[in-house]
Amino acid sequence: GQQLNQSPQSMFIQEGEDVSMNCTSSSIFNTWLWYKQEPGEGPVLLIALYKAGELTSNGRLTAQFGITRKDSFLNISASIPSDVGIYFCAGKGGSQGNLIFGKGTKLSVKP
Amino acid sequence: SQTIHQWPATLVQPVGSPLSLECTVEGTSNPNLYWYRQAAGRGLQLLFYSVGIGQISSEVPQNLSASRPQDRQFILSSKKLLLSDSGFYLCAWSASNRGTQYFGPGTRLLVL
C-alpha cells in the first residue's frame, strides 16, 4: 500500500532559527496537506497544495508540492515558542481513497 | 463557515462499559466523515469513514463500531470497552473528493 515517510521525527531548535521538514511518498499524490497539532487539540490545517510545483505561504510558513508529486516540504522561518507542536503531512492520490498521514515531526523551540 | 464539534471532551470509563462518542458538523451538507484514533500524541489511525447516511467503511477490525444516523452526525460506539481502547479520538470532515480534511477538537478516552 501507499506509504508516507516524514522526517525528521523530532527537532529541538533555538528561537529565531529556521525549520525544514519533509515528506516523501511511495506513489504519486494529487494533494499534499500540512497540519499542526498542539497538545490535547485536534490537528489544524496550515497549508493545502493541489498542484505539482505549487509553492504556498502562510505567514512564516512555506510549503511546496514537489514536481515529482512524490514529496513535499514545509519550512518555518524565524521560529517562535508558539511554533511548538507536532506537524503532520498528509497526501492523497486521485479522487478516490483517503488521506495518508505521516507520523509527524515534533518541534520544540527553546526561547 | 463550517464548524465541527465533538463531545465529550474527556471521558473516563471502566473496562467492559459501553461507549458513545458524538461528532457533528455545521455549515456544510453531505460531508465525508472520518473517525481517527491517536495514541501517545503521534500517528493518526483511520478507524471509520462515511460518504453518506448509513454508509460506513471500516479500516481496522476491532472493538469499535460507527454509525451515521444523520447527514452531519457521526457516532463512534463500543459495547464493551477494552483497556487498549484508551486514546485520543478525532473526528474529521471533508467536502466530496477534494481530500482536505478538517478536524474536530478530539475526545480523550481513558479506560481503567
Give an overview of the whole structure.
The complex is a heterodimer of chains A (111) and B (112). Chain A is an all-beta fold and 111 residues long. Helix content of chain A is 0%, strand content 54%. In chain A, the strands form 2 sheets. In chain A, strands 2, 4, 5, 9, 10 and 11 form a 6-stranded mixed β-sheet that branches. Chain B is an all-beta fold. The interface between A and B is medium-sized, with 25 and 21 residues.
Give the structure's gist in a few sentences.
The complex is a heterodimer of chains A (111) and B (112). By secondary structure, chain A is mainly beta.
Spell the H/E element sequence of chain B: EEEEEEEEEEE
Mean pLDDT of chain A: 93
Rg of chain B computed from alpha carbons, rounded to a whole number of angstroms: 13 Å
Instruction: Please work out how many helical segments of chain A DSSP would assign.
Output: 0
Largest interface pair: A-B, 25 and 21 residues
Beta-strand segment tally of chain B: 11
Mean pLDDT of chain B: 93
